[in-house]
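Cross-posted from the bioinformatics board.
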Amino acid sequence: MKKVLSFLRSMKFGMILLVLVIACSFAGSMIVQQRDAMEYVRRYGEDAAQLILALGLDDVFSAPYFIVLMAALCLNLILCSIVRLPRTMRAKKALISRAETAKTDTPLDEGQAGKLCAFFEKRHYSRYKAGDRIIYFKNSIGFYGSFITHFSFLLILLVGAAAVMTADVRDQTVMPGETLELEGGISIRVDSFQIVDETGLLDYASTLTVSDDIGKTVTREIRVNEPLSFEGYKIYQQTYGTAGAVRIKNLETGVSEDMKLTEACFLTLDGVSGMFYQALYPGYVTDSDGSVTLITSTSGAYTDPVYDIVSVSGGAMTPVLAFPDETLTIGNVSFTMLDPVSYPGLRIKHMNPLVLGLLYATFVLMVAGLYLCFFAAPLAVAADDDGYVILSPKTQTGLMIELEALLKEE
Amino acid sequence: MEILFFAAIVAYFAATMLQSVGAMMDRNKLTRAARAIFIAGFALHTAFTAWRGFAAGRLPLANQFEFASGFSWSAAIMGIVLYARLKQNWVMTVSMPVAFLVLSYAAFQPMEIKELMPALRSTWFALHIGSATFSYASFAIAGGLGARYLAMLKKGHADSETAMKQTDYMTYRLICLGFLLLTVVILSGAIWAEQAWSRWWSWDPKETWALITWILYAIYLHQRMRMKWQGKRMAWFAVIAVVCVLFTFAGVNKLLPGLHSYAV
């Protein structure tokens, strides 16, 4: 048991896990992820596709083995952190007592002790006397660098997983002018949505009015990089769509109604005759022979929208291409095609602000830990009449080289 | 103003050649001239970068050309600062070709100034991408130093034990700096991604390869700091790891499309 525990907390085990994470990440980046089986057959051939699917390489980062790998990494970090902290504290005490007794390994000539003293004073080392030797000391906080780094990495994995699992995320399509009600009396109204075309660069922006049940209201435009935060909710401009619009008028009663067309549908009053809406196209090109080719790309603005519809009347079906403001009369009903309406797809995320704050604090902690590790390593230099010795848990080649050069100077 | 850019490439090339010849023949005059030309090239490069930033109305780090130019600029300034601090010729022998090669790569990328994409208009842009240029430059120079160490070893420079020790140590220190900066790149990227796309991490190819690079250097640092590996093994590691950095920098953009595809 002791041996197993010792292996689980060892650096060797940690390194093996890191190599396995590299291997999984490599596979996950080279093989397209989360596609259907036919896509893998088409891309890689039948045999390779079978292997990919059998090994779960089509969704590496959600595969059970990857989750086990990350759990093992957390375990390794927990165990090594537990072991590291008391060791770190002991090392701190040990370094000071070693500095008082350690044998010097580099001799000092006459006058060089003064140079050494000036050098360390310039570098703001602490200094104290222990018997006949002077001890220069620096960066005692650096002892904790390695512990902080490993511990913060562990926290990033754990708090990150908690942040993802506790977040309530929903994607919602909302037409301009419509209001979405959330739990807790919060409502989100889409005042407007626009696609701004900056010479080919499309930017999507929605103006939202968000309010709660006690009257707090915020109106703001959201776009990529600029979500709206409101009482623990974060609302993102996630995607967009364009819907057709039609005004249907009953010519007998004079009653009319506007409708959004988001999918193919049959619009009828009597169930027999009416308009079958098929699709909306963003534009068209008139060829040299006068024929019309519809533009099928829906990634840009709808500059010349065209409605693809079928008129159904008395059992006859007639395909029609209609433009905005065109009216089609079928029986006692008129269908006036309107300008298409662009609408946003919002992502609404609710998460605990404490988890979010904790996650960002772990980020800062990790950077601080690494800084302490690399640039604030603790070290002590003990100097007496015979010479000096450098003591540190980390290799101090840089300081050794600097001191050698300093003492060689005339 | 592109003339400044091409003049900087020429200056970096001339400096690299002079420095190599000077270092091989042990001629101080040549290496001094190389340094002067390199600093002049760096001034031209800085002027070009400033002009481009002014013309674009933003930080010039938005596409592959600008990033490569920033990467080269970072390598150049790191070389100059390290030389100023250490007064060691070999720092320049390695930094100069790195700056030259990366800037030459930039010359093959589309140079036109484009409007910043909406997805890149963020306060995190400068920190995330600025740290990446310095991180990559640190790793690239460290790789160059690793190659120098191996070359010295092959030539059997027994008399230059101190120089080899210095090279080995500087490789390690640059990897420490690069690793710290790469951590900043990844963490600031995660915060930015949450602002832009609502997710901290998407396993996008660029993110995944940044993580692979980070883990690779984490392994290097553990072997070095805990296992006390030094010298030849670590030099090989530093050289091989640069391939991973270069793939993350350029290969991913060309071969693995994803959320970071605008970096092309």
